[in-house]
Structures are given as structure tokens and as C-alpha cells.
Amino acid sequence: MSYLMKTAMQGQRVDNASFDLIQNRIESLSGKMDTLINLQEKVLSRLDAEPVGTAKEENPKVSKEEILVPQGEVRQEVKEIYQKMSTIMSAVNQRSEMQALKLEGMEKLVLSMQQVISFIGETVKSSRVMELIFNGRATRKGNKGKQVLKMKSSDTKKTEKLKDHKGKDGEEKPCLIPKGLKGQMKMKPPDTSEEEEVQKIEAEEESTTEDASEGSELPDNQKEQTNASGDCDVASPSSEDDVDQIVELSIAEELVVVEETPKPDDEEDDNKEAKEEDEQEESEDWAVFQADGVEFQFDLKERLEREKETRGENEGQKEKEHVQQYHIDTAPPPAAPFSHRIVSAKPNQISNFYTINWQEVLGGGRFGQVHKCVENSSGLTLAAKVIKARAQKEKEVVKNEIQVMNNLDHANLIQLYAAYESRNDIILVLEYVGGGELFNRIIDENYTLMELDAVVFIRQICEGLQHMHKMYILHLDLKPENILCVSRVTNKIKIIDFGLARIYKPREKLRVNFGTPEFLAPEVINYDFVSFNTDMWSLGVITYMLLSGLCPFLGDDDNETLNNILACQWNLEEQEFVDTSEEAKDFISRLLVVNKSWRMGASEALRHPWLSDPVLHHKLNTKKTMCRSRRSSCVPPTDS
Asked: CA–CA distance from 196 to each of 190, 191, 266, 381 (Å)?
């Protein structure tokens, strides 16, 4: 770290020296430019003082010698200074890149160290060793059969494993079992494979067995400890201070003495072989990690079993969730059979390019009618929207609709193909959609609209609105009549009729006084400022209608309808909402809010559980399947 900082400081000094040199060069150049200006002033003063004839003879020599020559020298110096500046700047850039690489390496190193420290901290934090650190000493635990053992020895031998279960008198001694650190460390030896670990453990067991058989050669205090310890792992530090340090630094092992009832000699002889085999198997299930001469043991078998159980539970939970989930079809509807176009009204007769079927009316309204048509050159089936526009103001309204549609390119929004202007009307040639209005699905007695169908419809409307609002466009006339189904056998839709749409400019407050009464937002009725959430109110009304077939604010006349909207008088207590999910009711309640600032936006609506929760969709799909099995009327009618 200090080396890198020192290098960075040296590089900074070099950069400072380079900039000082550049500054000196610039100051020198400035001085020479001042000299040149003074020289030019002298020449001009002489020209003013001398007669005209004399000036003609002598002044050219003066200007050549005193003006042209210094200018050439200055240019040469400027060129040299520029070259030196370029060289210095390139060197500075290279050094900056080197410093950035060094800093990036330091950052990666620090992050790696933080990860290692975090792992060690979490491991130690969850272990019982923390108790030893805070208590300061090993405490006694349990009753007669349990006590904590601290080994004190001046012998410099490493950790020994004594396998002899019996003392000199033939009686079996208590067994010391490691308890504190068992299974808590999750690391493996850094540079040792599993096979090498097993071989190492077997070699240590053989050496410790030989040491146990030569117990008479050990010191007296160690013999006593060996006879009292049985087959336990006994650490023999070099001094008593080392032992205390090991305990306080979380490296000691807590050894619990478990007393066993003495058995007869014949039973001991019969079970001796079985015990040795069990000990051998247990030793193979343990991994050993040495750090600073101290051994850590990890029960690999127990850890693997625990991981298998956890993995099995997770897989079972995922499988269970997968069974209970249902993913609705979120694929967009078929795109228009032509790419997005930028259209302007052409002063031509549409009959020169298209054949319009005036007898087949696809739809109509206050603007005029929509007829099916075919492009003569390509045979492409399209729709011709004939809008009556005689006055210039009426034509400007239609051209605003064309401008809005030029900005909208989305699968859930109908696309504009061409436009033609005549004296009495403007005809828009649009993408053909033949599935009928969504309103017809709502009022069709032969079609039972299930809640999952409403989810699919509303989600697509939200996606279309989301794109419009991202393009800063308000629809302002959203209703079931302005939503077309792509076909009669699918739930794919497209939003149409942008005749009342407006480009929204936040700084220019927008007010409107038009729309369909049942779907107007309170701010439109009050002639207040409108925004994106004005469309979301209309979406709430459409959702209410799809789920119940009822209009939430419809009165006996338009005035009563508008008063109901201003009073926000609506409820979900109707019989039609008995089987409606709570998520759907919550969705409506977050849209039909008088204050537009508190309504959900299109993006938030797409994240609402009613539109995004696959578990809920599974329940709705199950309900729809049961209805379909009971009544054939739940199935949408097929095309004839």
C-alpha cells in the first residue's frame, strides 16, 4: 500500500513539473507576442510620421525585416512548444492510465480481503468459542460425568491422538470427545486434496499408536495425562502461557469428559474390535486443518448430510411453488403487417391507390366511419377511417391525431399506414384488426368473461399506456369501445382512436373538456389539469366493468353520472363481485381515487400482484378450468 502511494505521489510530482514547464513555455510565448505587438506599433508610428513618398521607398524594407522575420520565428517557437506540450500530455495520460490500473488492483485486493474477513468473522461469531473469549477461561459444565480439561505441559511435541482405550489396570478410561469446534468451520485445507488428508490422518494414527505403546518413555506428568485421556485428541503446547493464549484466541477445543460404566473383561474383549473399526470410520469422516501448529477438525460427513437435507428441502419447495404457479400469456399481439411509418396527409384521391368496401362498416362514432379496404399495389388488407373535416380547425384536429400516431410504435397500439386529404374529409389508412370491440365481449351473453381473462386484457392495456406515457402522450378517451380484440378466439388487444389524444408538456398545464361521461376522471369534470394518471382512472372503470359487467358511476342521465364521479360513489358490494379476488378489488381501489397524485401509474399497475403474481394466476386458472368443464358457455365462441 505504501509503495503504491509513494509511486502515485512521484507520478503526481512529475505531472506537476510537466505542467509547470508548459506554463513557462506559454508565458515565454506571451512575452514574445507582446514584443511583436510593440514592434508593429513602432512601425505604424513611423508610417504615420514619414511622408508618403518616403514611406513608399523605405517602409517595405522595414516591414520585411522587422515584422515578417519575427513572425516566422514566433511561429516556429509556437510549433515547438505545441509539439512538446503534446508529448508531455501523452506522457501524463499514460501515467494516469497506469495509476488507474494500480488503483483498480488495490480495490480488488481490498474487496477480496473483506470477503475473507467477513467469512472468518461469521464463522467465529456463530461458534461456541466466543463464549471462551468473553468468559476468559474454561468453565465447568454438567454434572459428575462432565468436566473441562486444559492441558499444561512443557513438552514441545505436536498434537497427539491416543487410541488406547485402557489403562495399565485393564479398566476402560473416560473418553474425551471434541465438542466446541465440531462442524463449525467450513473451509478445507488450502493445498491438500481429500486423499492426501486421509493418508495424513492414517499416518498420524499409526504414529500415535506407537507413542501410546511406548508410554513408559514419556515424562511422568504426560504419562498420567495419557492414562487419563483414552483415545482423545490432546494438544501439547510448549508452555502453559501458550495454552492460555490458544484458549483466548479461539483456537482451543472444548473437551467434555463422558464417564462410561465399567464393563466386564469379556465384553470389553468382544467389543474392542468393533470400537477400533468405528474409530477408523470416524477418522475418515473428519478433515484436519493446521494453522500455527494447531489442528482444527471438521466433520465432513455431518456437513454433507446437512447440505443434502437443505438442498432437498429447497428443491421440494421450488417444485411445490412451481406446481402452484401459472404464467399467463404475456406475449405481445401480432405486429402490424408493415413497419412503423411517419405519415403526412397527402392531397390525393384515396381511390387512386385503394379499393374501399363502403358496404362493410367496421366501426364508427362522432368522427365518421371505418371501412375495410385493400391496397391496389400490394393486396394488403387495411382499414380506412373516414373523418369529416371541412373547416381548417377540424383538419388541424385530425392532423394532431396523425402526429400522435407517428410517435407511437407498440404492438398494443394500432398503427397508421397512410393519410389522404380532400376538400371535405381526411381519410386515415390503418392497420386492420378484425376481432371486434372489447365492449362486445363484456355485453355478450354467450361469453362468460372470467377474472383471468380480465387480467390478460388489463395487463395489455397497461403495457400500451406505459408506452404512450413514456412518449408523453395522453389518450384521454380510453373506454372498451376504443379497445379492439385481434381475433375472436384470443385475448390479444390493441388500443385505437387517438382523436382526443394530446402530447403532454409538464410545464404547459393541460385542461380538456371532452370525453365519454362514464369514463371521465374528476379532474376533467372540474376542468383541472390533466396528467398521465387521468388515463389510469379510465383504466379503473374498465377493470370494474370487465369483472362485473356493470359501470361503477352510471346514472340516469349524464349529470347524475358526473355527480357520482365527483363524489367517487362506487362500491364492490355488488353480487357480481362475490367471487372476485381481493387482489382485483385492491387494484380497482388504487385506481378509482379522486386525487390523481394518489393513483397508480401504468408501471406500478404492472407490478401489482393482480397482474404479476403467478400463484394468484394459478388459482384463477383453476377456477376458469372448473367453469369450462361445467359450462361450455365459458369458452369464447370460435370464428365461423
From this structure: 12, 10, 38, 77
326 backbone φψ class: left, alpha, beta (φ>0; ψ -120 to 50): beta
φ and ψ of 228, to 5 deg: -90, -5
| pTM of the full structure | 0.52
Q: How far is CA 620 from the centre of its chain?
A: 28
The residue with cell 460404566 is: 261
The reply to whether domains 350-431 and 438-634 share a CATH topology is: no
pLDDT of 165: 42
Beta bridge partners, 287, equal 298
Give the cell for residue 325: 404457479
- Residues acting as catalytic residues: 477
Contact at 8 Å (CB) between 294 and 235? yes
> Can you tell me whether residue 418 is helix, strand or coil?
strand
State how far the Cα of 350 lies from the Cα of 419, in Å rounded to an integer: 8
Q: Which residue in 351, 427, 343 sits closest to 386, CA to CA? A: 427
Assess if CATH 2.60.40.10 describes domain 438-634: no
Q: How confident is the model at residue 61 (pLDDT cuts 50, 70, 90)?
A: very low
Mark out the alpha helices in 50-178 (DSSP H runs): 52-63, 69-125, 129-135
Q: What is the mean pLDDT of residues 484-502?
A: 92
Q: Which residues pair with 294 in a beta bridge?
A: 291
Q: Name 366's Cβ contacts closer than 8 Å, sequence gap at least 6.
A: none
How far apart, in whole angstroms, are the C-alpha atoms of residue 587 and residue 461?
14
Top-confidence residue, 555 or 132: 555
Residue range 153-188, pLDDT digits in tens: 444 444 444 344 444 444 444 443 344 444 444 444
Alpha-carbon separation of residue 281 from 172, 300, 301 (angstroms): 21, 12, 11
Residues 6+ apart with CB under 8 A from 387: 367, 368, 398, 425, 426, 427, 428, 499
Burial 176-210 (b: 16+ CB within 10 A, else e): bebebbbebbeeebeeeeeeebbeebeebbeebee
Q: Are 102 and 12 in contact (CB under 8 A)?
A: no
* pLDDT(426) > 80: yes
Rounded CA-CA distance 441/456 in Å is 14
Helix (H, G, I), strand (E, B) or coil at 286: strand
**Using 50, 70 and 90 to split pLDDT, how confident is the model at 439?**
confident
Higher-confidence residue: 438 or 238?
A: 438
Grid cell at residue 298:
471438521
| CA-closest candidate to residue 254, choices 137, 122, 123 | 137
| C-alpha span between 142 and 168 (Å, rounded) | 28
* Cα 547 from Cα 424, distance rounded (Å): 42
Average pLDDT, the chain: 74
Cα separation, 56 vs 61, in Å, equals 10
The CATH homologous superfamily of the domain defined by 350-431: Phosphorylase Kinase; domain 1 (3.30.200.20)
Is the Cβ–Cβ distance between 505 and 492 less than 8 Å?
no
Separation of alpha carbons 330 and 606, rounded Å: 11
Burial class (CB in 10 A: 0-12, 13-18, 19+), 85: middle
pLDDT (0 to 100) of residue 112? 80
In the chain, where are the structural domains located?
Answer: 2-124, 138-299, 350-431, 438-634
Phi, psi of 137 (to 5 degrees): -160, 165
Q: How many helices (DSSP H) and strands (DSSP E) are in the chain?
A: 19, 15
Q: Tens digits of per-residue pLDDT, 480-490?
A: 999 999 988 88
